[in-house]
Amino acid sequence: MFISLEGVDGSGKSTQARLLVEALGEGTVAIREPGGTDAAERIRDLLADPGVELEPLAELMLFLAARADLTERVIRPTLEADRHVVADRFSDSSVAYQGAARGLGVGEVIGLCETATDGLWPDLTLLLRIDPETGLGRAEGDDRFEQEGLGLQQAVAEAYEEIAVIASDRVTVIDANGSVEEVHERVMGAVNERLAAA
Ligand code: TMP
């Protein structure tokens, strides 16, 4: 099964992704976006650098280039080997950050994501819902998106809520308030339910 975790910066998804990978056991492959291949990790460094100015469309294309490489080289072969993939962000991040918050258009970005991934979407997306202000307080604050402040995070949070409605068959909203253990339990509840239905 292909599971992605999504949420505003500071929603705790990286911690939850790690715990989920441990819980799913050996053979599960963890990926983080952007990243996961040599080329994608280099693109990640470029994108995270607040000193690099980028047009929104150029920014999107870099995320998509990283995702295309990761999908073809890592995600598809892993799924074909019948192993689980847990992704810390995937196409929904581009739809929320670039499509909605940056204004490139939700429909347009969904289409471009499908080109980059050859139509691959996660089987299950866990949207960690947290107040964007709380999230920003928790985030490390050193990448280009976090530095842009609350306005961007609020736009991203609203976009995620829309995605949860549009893609309700795939997206499960998880309350990300509470302790790490409490949130992990909610995550496992959603994953076990989907595994049982598969
Ligand atoms: P991270 O902090 O979860 O590692 O993600 C890096 C930043 O990149 C985060 O602020 C969200 C942003 N992002 C996008 O804007 N579009 C994307 O497609 C992805 C994958 C991440």
Describe this structure in words.
- It is a single chain.
- The chain has 198 residues and is of the alpha/beta class.
- It has one domain: Rossmann fold.
- It is 59% helix and 12% strand.
- It contains nine helices and five strands, in the order βαβααβααβαααβα.
- It has helices at residues 13-24, 38-48, 56-80, 91-101, 106-117, 132-138, 144-147, 150-166, 180-197; strands at 2-6, 29-32, 85-88, 124-129, 171-175.
- It has a five-stranded parallel sheet, sandwiched between helices.
- α2 (38-48) packs antiparallel against α3 (56-80) and α4 (91-101) runs antiparallel to α5 (106-117).
- The radius of gyration is 16 Å and the shape is globular.
- The termini are close together.
- The model has no long low-confidence stretch (mean pLDDT 95).
- Residues 9, 33-34, 63, 89, 93-94, 97-98, 143, 145 line the site of thymidine-5'-phosphate (TMP).
